[in-house]
Design a protein that fits this description.
The chain has about 500 residues and is α+β, with helices and mostly antiparallel strands. The protein is built from 11 helices and 11 strands. Helix content is about 70%, strand content about 15%.
């Protein structure tokens, strides 16, 4: 029985072992990667975008990335061209590990389990060397004008070197050429000048062709216009001649018709005039009758209009008289109100002036009383001296008195003017004839005059005679009479 079960157990173990190997050794490669299975065979198996079986413990799995690797190729220093111009090249290159079996085998030997950055750095060194090599073989102008040719030459030159590593160049694009001496820029300026020159020449030729075509078209247009005007003038002349002929015929027919019409019209006029005369006679008779009635009616209307006009004029005059009377009353009232207002204003000013005068008079009175008290005190003190002075003056005689009175005249005038100087404000009410102002101006002379008269009455000494001392009579006749004292000098 054991012998019969043993084969089944072995088969089962084999099946389980195969399943375990399948489950542990199943490998699936993505489209952008290559899986290399090696170990049992001399040449490794390659899986790209498909699945496979790896025997555990007996075979190994390695991966190569088939993705694009972008490399920025820049020459680290200036490179001289075939025409000995130093430039620097900036290019972008895309490379990848080749999926071809022979190149893939080389790539596996060089880059197995390496990162894309490492592959890119190795490829960059190779590409920069090839760029320098191609730059030294080409002229600058040729490279600038045909970048694609430069890129193709570099690509063709670098492909064998990269193929030995298992790499393919997918694209090579030149980004820029840079030189330190601005040669490329000057080439561009030269090309710009050439292009502008060619454009200017082309534009001038085009404008010349346009002007020639325009002149030709204008000439053809002018010839056509002249021909058309000539044809129109000829047709107009023919039309004018035809119209003249037709006008002559029409005028003849019209003259004949006008003559016949005139004759017929004259006959009709005579008949009409006879009938009109008879009608005028009848109408005149009727008009005479109507005029008589119209005269009567106009007389009645005229009488009525005269009465109405007289009534209207009378009413208008009455209204005008009322209006004038009303206007006069209003004007009188307005004048009365204005005069009343002026009188009130003047009354108010008079009252204010009177109050001011009263205040000024009171102030003057107080000041006068104070001065009088001082004067009395002073006078009492000086009375004795004056008495002695009077006795002395009696001894001097009238001549000394005259000298003293004359010397006192300025003080007298000052004393008369001092009360006026103490007045702060004076309001003059004048009726319009200037009497108020003149009376204010005559105040000081009047007081001075009264003072002189008082001196004359008390002392018998006339100051006016002294003042006449400088007159013509005093100087020529030497005749001067002072208070009964007569001084007479005869001319020598």
């Amino acid at each position: 029985m054991l012998e019969s079960i043993l084969p089944k157990i072995l088969i089962t173990l084999i099946v389980v072992l195969v399943l375990v190997i399948l489950m542990c050794g199943y490998v699936k490669a993505a489209p952008d990667q290559a899986i290399l299975i090696s170990g049992l065979r001399k040449n490794a198996r390659t899986l790209i975008g498909r699945a496979g079986i790896k025997i555990p413990f007996l075979e190994r799995k390695d991966v190569l990335s088939l993705q694009l690797i972008s490399i920025d190729v820049k020459t680290s220093s200036s490179v001289p061209t075939a025409d000995y111009i130093n430039i620097m090249v900036d290019a972008t290159v895309n490379v990848k590990i080749s999926d071809k079996p022979d190149k893939l085998k080389l790539a596996a030997q060089n880059f197995l389990n390496k990162k894309p950055d490492y592959v890119g750095s190795v490829a960059k060194e190779v590409l920069e060397g090839n760029v320098r090599e191609i730059v030294g073989k080409m002229r600058l102008e040729e490279m600038v004008n045909d970048r694609q040719k430069f890129a193709n030459l570099v690509k063709e030159n670098a492909e064998p070197d990269l193929a030995e590593m298992g790499l393919d160049i997918i694209s090579f694009n030149v980004q820029n050429f840079v030189d330190d001496n601005q040669v490329i820029e000057n080439l561009g300026v030269d090309n710009i000048v050439k292009i502008k020159k060619e454009a200017a020449i082309s534009r001038a030729e085009s404008e010349k062709e346009i002007n020639v075509a325009r002149a030709r078209a204008e000439k053809e247009s002018n010839d056509a216009r002249v021909a058309a005007d000539t044809a129109i003038a000829e047709k107009n002349n023919e039309l004018a001649l035809k119209q003249s002929e037709l006008q002559i015929v029409a005028d003849s027919k019209k003259a004949e018709a006008d003559a016949a019409y005139s004759i017929q019209k004259e006959q009709q006029r005579k008949v009409i005039e006879v009938a009109k005369t008879e009608a005028d006679i009848a109408k005149q008779e009727k008009d005479n009758e109507l005029k008589g009635k119209e005269v009567e009616a106009q007389e009645q209307v005229l009488n009525a209009e005269i009465r109405k006009r007289a009534d209207a004029e009378k009413y208008a005059k009455e209204q005008a008289a009322d209006a004038q009377r009303y206007a006069a009353e209003q004007k009188a009232k307005a004048d009365l109100a204005a005069r009343q207002a002026d009188a009130d204003a003047k009354k108010y000013e008079i009252e204010k002036a009177a109050e001011a005068k009263e205040r000024n008079a009171a102030a003057i009175q107080r000041e006068g009383e104070a001065e009088a008290a001082a004067t009395r005190a002073k006078g009492e003190a000086e009375a004795e001296a004056l008495l002695k002075k009077a006795e002395a003056m009696k001894q001097y005689g009238q001549a000394a008195m005259v000298e003293m009175i004359v010397n006192m005249l300025p003080e007298m005038a000052k004393a008369v003017a001092e009360p006026l100087a103490a007045i702060d404000k004076v309001t003059i009410i004048d009726s319009g004839d200037g009497a108020g102002v003149s009376s204010m101006g005559d105040y000081t002379p009047a007081i001075l005059k009264k003072t002189i008269e008082a001196v004359k009455e008390t002392t018998g000494f006339d100051l006016t005679e002294v003042m006449k001392a400088s007159t013509y009579d005093a100087k020529v006749n030497h005749n001067l009479n002072v208070s009964g004292v007569e001084f007479s000098q005869k001319s020598e």
